[in-house]
Design a protein that fits this description.
With 505 residues, this protein is an alpha+beta fold. It contains eleven helices and 15 strands. The chain folds into three domains: 90 residues; 219 residues, 4-Layer Sandwich (Phosphatase 2c, domain 1), CATH 3.60.40; 124 residues, Heat Shock Protein 90, CATH 3.30.565.10. The termini are far apart.
């Protein structure tokens, strides 16, 4: 049952105002009557007569004003209705004469007008609701994208490096990658593509990512972990979705790389040999309780790079409709490896090649890429003590051998090491020295508090007389280094210095 909405109209307001004035006049008359009587102004009848002559004319004037205001108000209302009616009739007549339509009575026209206004309101409310839903979906999509792309990329032991990235073609992506440690020296990583789209596929992907992490930590072999993942997906898959992926475990101590292919594309392997890695085709996950999966392995030697990817990389199309294809992908990986400065740079070479090929065209499919790079180099653990400077010097000089800059490079490393010792509170400092492409790369990794040694200014400025070799301190680093940057990963400080390789006669 509906309730009528009570509101104050103009007649109601006017009536209330008039009633207030009448009440005020009556109160005034009463006060005058009782004030005059004690003064001996005359008999009761005389006093009442005098009071009425003061009050009644005022009441009459108020009544006339009230009536005039009401008449004026209703005239205005009637005039507005009349004009509206004439306008509707004229429009109907015009429609009948010019457009051949039927004549519409005023009442019907007003009813249709009201219905149109009501529909407009409903459309507006629907548009507002749709916009709110769209914003909510975008927020959920961003959360899902963050969950899928967030990964603890390896940096505990920097004798190898891994990096992943993803590009989405739609609001919600179901292609993803992951990289994490099983213990201190074993890297586990994956790339995967969910068959499907929308929120259902994104939820399936997010769930698969977490399930595989749990399975990898609870299993003795990679094949067992993948089978556990498949079982969990099959048991809760009302939408009958499927996942293709490449799963791998890398042990740098032995160089052993174990992998399981579940319907994914063959990875690109670049080193002395340059080819697509031969893998068993495998079966997608999430559909069958006993999929055909094979665990394979190879010895992943220093100097090699392995790149895994989803279909979106090779199926990306240019504005002319041409596919990026496997040949262009292989060339992009090879180019990144030849001028490599680590896994991140190889990853960038691939994604930039795909984006450059597509140009202004939109991606037709999401893509995810993961790169594993195992460079040549040396590593050592240093205690956070200034007494370790001698061992740092021996490591750097032995590594650089005949490079004429070796003393300056050591001074740059000495400055970084000293700042870490004095300011980070680290318990251990890991030093990694390696050749990556056309660069000598030195990395310091420590477990201290978040601390950027590049932000430390020595007393007296960068050029003070207390430094050897001209006393340049941090300035030496910026003068001779091709690149230097700091980041934190897995609660560790990582500072990387790249020195361009020079040829010695």
């Amino acid at each position: 049952m509906s309730k009528r909405r009570m509101g104050l109209t103009f007649p109601k307001i006017l009536t209330l105002f008039f009633a207030g004035l009448v009440l005020a006049a009556v109160v005034y008359g009463a006060i005058r009557y009782f004030v005059l009587l004690p003064d001996g102004a005359g008999s009761d009848a005389e006093v009442l007569h005098r009071v009425l002559w003061e009050v009644v004319p005022a009441l009459a004037v108020l009544l006339i004003m009230y009536a005039a205001a009401l008449v004026f108000y209703f005239i205005r209302i009637a005039s507005s209705i009349s004009r509206a009616a004439r306008a509707v009739e004229e429009a109907a007549a015009h429609r009948q004469a010019g457009l051949g339509g039927e004549w519409v009575p005023v009442e019907s026209a007003i009813q249709k007008l009201g219905a149109s206004v009501e529909q407009s309101v409903k459309d507006r409310e629907g548009a507002i609701a749709l916009d709110a839903r769209r914003k909510a979906e975008e927020g959920i999509a961003r959360d899902m994208e963050a969950a899928l792309s967030a990964t603890s990329l390896p940096c505990i032991e920097l004798d190898f490096s891994g990096a992943g990235g993803a590009e989405r073609a739609s609001l919600i992506s179901a292609d993803f990658f992951d990289g994490f440690y099983l213990g201190r020296r074993t890297l586990c990583f994956m790339t995967a593509d969910v068959w499907g789209s929308g929120f259902a596929a994104a939820r399936f992907a997010s769930r698969a990512k977490e399930l595989f992490r749990d399975a990898a930590h609870a299993s003795d072999t990679l094949a067992e972990a993948v089978l556990r993942l498949n079982q969990a997906l099959v048991e809760n898959n009302p939408d009958r979705l499927a996942l293709t992926g490449f799963f791998a475990v890398f042990m740098p101590g032995t160089g052993e790389l174990r992998y399981v292919n579940a319907g994914a594309n063959p990875p690109v392997l670049v080193g002395k040999e340059r080819a697509f890695l031969r893998v068993q085709p495998g079966c997608p996950l999430g559909l069958y309780r006993q999929p055909e999966l094979t665990e394979e392995y190879l010895i992943f030697k220093p100097g090699r790079c392995l790149v895994t990817y989803t279909n979106g990389a090779v199926e990306a199309r240019s504005a002319k409709g041409e596919a990026f294809g496997y040949d262009r992908l292989f060339d992009a990986v090879k180019d990144g490896w030849e001028r490599s400065l680590g896994a991140e740079r190889i990853l960038s070479a691939v994604t930039e090649a795909v984006k450059g090929f597509v140009g202004g065209a939109a991606l037709r499919d999401d893509l995810a890429v993961y790169a594993l790079y195992y460079p040549n180099g040396i590593q050592t653990e240093l205690s956070p003590k200034t007494s370790e400077l001698e061992r740092l010097r021996d490591t750097i000089l032995d590594w650089l051998k005949d490079d004429p800059r070796k003393n300056k490079i050591f001074l740059a490393c000495e400055e970084i090491f000293t700042n870490i010792v004095n300011h980070s509170g680290a318990n251990t400092i890991h030093l990694s020295c390696q050749v990556e492409g056309n660069s000598f790369v030195v990395r310091f990794t420590d477990d201290g508090e978040p601390f950027n040694p590049l932000q430390v200014r020595p007393e007296g400025g960068y050029y003070n007389s207390n430094y050897t070799e001209g006393g340049m301190g941090m300035a030496i680093i910026r003068q001779i280094a091709g690149e230097i940057y700091y980041r934190t990963q897995e609660n560790r400080n990582v500072l990387t210095i790249r020195f361009p390789v020079i040829k010695v006669n």
